Protein 1
Amino acid sequence: MSSLALHVAELLAAAPDICYVTDHYLGYTAVLVRLSRVTPDVLRDLLGMAHKFVTADTARRSPSRHRRKPVQFWLASEQSESDRPHIALGRGTMTVASTTSVNVKQPVPFFGVTNMEASLRFYVDGLGFKMKHWWIPNREEDKPDSRIRWSWLELGEAAIMLQEFLPERQPKEKLGTGRSVCFMCEDALALYREFKSHGIQTRHRPFVGNRLWVVPLTDPDGYRIDFESPTDAPEESELAE
């Protein structure tokens, strides 16, 4: 792929695992490029070709000269064409992949809790999370009482946020129903033994499910917290103690 003057058919035949088209682009001299499969070197070449095409000096192009229409490149994420952002580069438009996959770093569960002190005893004293950030209201409208109302907790590379409900805003339904968080780790059983030494009780003994050791916990508000790690142990095995 040394020139943007490659035909779509030729380009698709040369790199079918990287280049493709959808119905939306049929009839256009354009191909889509799978960012998940393209190497940095190939991507650099493609961008260079695309840039050369859209910034070329039109004055140097003779209108009477017959040329094959150059191929335009769209760097594709797994989005629909209507959702994909566009960047105009002088002449024509090149679509680039969403930056979402680059910017997203980690999911952080946000739990509403009824008693922050009880939750911090569970997560910090019991499970070993570290409180990195917290909020103590000081505005009159927030009904300050010198207590922590919100906190950001971290354990290794995992994080969780807790916020205490105001008494008048506590939900009527039971908290935690249908909600769970699975923390993937290197050795869930080692964590289980550490939790146990801190007086934390599991819902039941650690077991194997989907080729993972699962340490099942429930926090003070009923949220299910599972710590899991890969294993070759037979399915449905339980930890013998």
Protein 2
Amino acid sequence: MEINNFSRHCKNGKYNFINEKGEYLTDQWFDYAGNFYCGFAHIKLDGKWNFINTDGKIISDQWFDFIFGFEDGFSQVKLNGKWNLINTDGKLIYDQWFDDIWENSNGLSRVKLDNKYNFINTDGKYFSNQWFDWADNFYHGLAVVRLNDKYNFINTDGKYFSNQWFDEVDCFENGVAKVKLNGKWNFINTNGEYLSDQWFDEVDYFCDGFARVKLKGEGYNYLKLDGTFLTKELYDECYSFLYGLALVAKKDKGYNYIDINGEYVKEWEGVYG
């Protein structure tokens, strides 16, 4: 594979890079070398890792125990069991080394230190004064955080998404996220508003614009993204919508399919009854 006019070349178990003229990129041969990606290739020598650029320059004076490829100008590097970031100039980004570090996104890296989690920007400023028991990466501008066995969302401004902390949460999909409080489930939208005034025993993810929900002691229905129910009828059993149809069951009717208007599809009536 040839990138930036140099391709990886192996000779006698050692690696270098060679161009179409037969010229080697560097006089140094390595124990291993990867292909160039975004102008850099990872190299291994005496059990340690570094990067080399297309000018043949090894970018860092420090060799590492492990490295990831560059993404958005930064690479995760590991040394003596701790993690940091370097930029494409080979400069370490943080004075602090962390127990773990995850990819830089939204200008923030998720970090772990002494079993606590936070986010830090490339200027070395922590995102929050609060360290969390756990935190996830940002997704659509929000990250799930856990503190004292409760969950919330935090945005890229460092503000909590809701004044309420929940027993469980899931990531946002279709503009809503599942949240659990006191054993009951609901959905919350990106404005921090509950989708329904009613809380449910069970909720599924939205599929084809509908989420299967269970009402305590009453049965199942489908919740729409506007917070209303698909039908006034409740079912003893039901399944998610797929291609505009969902399988439902009632003791007096057996199994039938309904469409997105909540109407029974006549030709399928009783197919599993």
